[in-house]
Amino acid sequence: MHSINKQLLQRYSKLELLAKQVVEGFITGLHKSPFHGFSVEFAEHRLYNTGESTRHIDWKQYAKTEKLFIKKYEEETNLRCHLVIDCSSSMLYPLQNNNTLESPNKLFFAIYGAAVLIEILKRQRDAVGLSLFAEKLLIHTPAKSSTVHHRFLYNRLEELMEQTEKEPAQSFVTNNLHYIAESIHKRSLVVLFSDMMDNSENENELFSALQHLKHNKHEVILFNVYDKKDELNFAFENRPYRFIDLETKEEVKLNPQEIKQQYKEEIAKKQETIKLKCAQYGVELVQCDIHEGFHQVMWAFLVKRAKLF
Questions:
Q1: Is the pTM of this model over 0.85?
Q2: DSSP assignment of 259-298
Q3: How many CB atoms lie within 10 A of CB 269?
Q4: Model confidence over 20-64: pLDDT tens digits?
Q5: Residues 49, 11: one domain?
Q6: What is the rounded CA–CA span in Å between residue 125 and residue 305?
Q7: Total structural domains in the chain?
Q8: Do residues 263 and 156 share a domain?
Q9: Coil, strand or helix: which one is 45?
């Protein structure tokens, strides 16, 4: 359990104010909400009446009893959403003194995205929870819809924004997602912000964690955050560089041109695998190049979501 500093919650956070301003601009352009509750919770059986649609007949029950029963479901109008942010050291790239909406590093992009989603869900009176992780789970809150809870989440995100380069923290997406999948007991919308640079020995383990969430009936959205210019295109000048692994602090000196082609081929394979696995498991993939612009990426995502309903 995490204690809540009530004095801290009294103040109106800068991040909350920023999220309000951003959402005001988004919402005016949307005709429908981008998020809706689920209507799939099984309640009970009732006998089938002649002439009704056969869509919800329980054929397994018919095989056992030779009687036709209809599955009844509880209507759920409210959504439970769980926001999950990868806080490992690689998310601090690119290292810079000033992060803004126009020029964020990967972690700031994730924080801004989470803050905007909290604001949208708050307006819908939906419940939202937050998990932060690196090597281990740093915070894991239940999904709630109270004002005090929303302020608590905003302030935790603001504390995260204030962290700069620190002791290296590796990313263990796999272990933490498995834990989160087991700890969310009711069907929820799970939104993951990560660069997907996991330290599992077997890459398939990473995707098994996403599959675990889907197996537990959660809807999953992956915001894959990256710096396209540097991390995908390896667009460095033709001169010697000293590259430092932010998660391990290991260093290597080389000229990028010597490995550029091989690097680009490997990273392209990794990105294609993420795309294919998400399609295979029914995970909604949102590709987030931090240089594309926060507003543009989030707007495209919200418009697409709104059109689904």
A1: no
A2: THHHHHHHHHHHHHHHHHHHHHHTPEEEEEETTT-HHHHH
A3: 10
A4: 989 988 877 776 778 877 654 555 777 888 877 777 788 888 888
A5: no
A6: 18
A7: 2
A8: yes
A9: strand
Write the secondary structure of 124-163 as one string of H (helix), E (strand) and C (coil): CCCEEEEEEECCCEEEECCCECCHHHHHHHHHHHHHHHCC
Residue count of the chain:
309
- In a domain? residue 35: no
Residues 249-261 pLDDT 10s = 899 999 999 999 9
Residue 112 domain-assigned (yes or no): yes
- Does residue 272 share a domain with residue 229? yes
User: Rounded to whole angstroms, how far apart are CA atoms 26 and 58?
Assistant: 42
HSE-CB at 35 with a 13 A cutoff on CA atoms is: 26
CB 227 within 8 A of CB 290: yes
AA letter at 187? R
Domain holding 256, by residue range, is: 6-29+77-308
Is the domain of 55 the same as that of 102?
A: no
The pLDDT of residue 165: 57
CATH for 237: 3.40.50.410
Domain check: are 58 and 162 in the same one?
Answer: no
Q: Which two tokens stand for residue 122?
A: 């708050």
Which residue bears the tokens 């495209």? 300
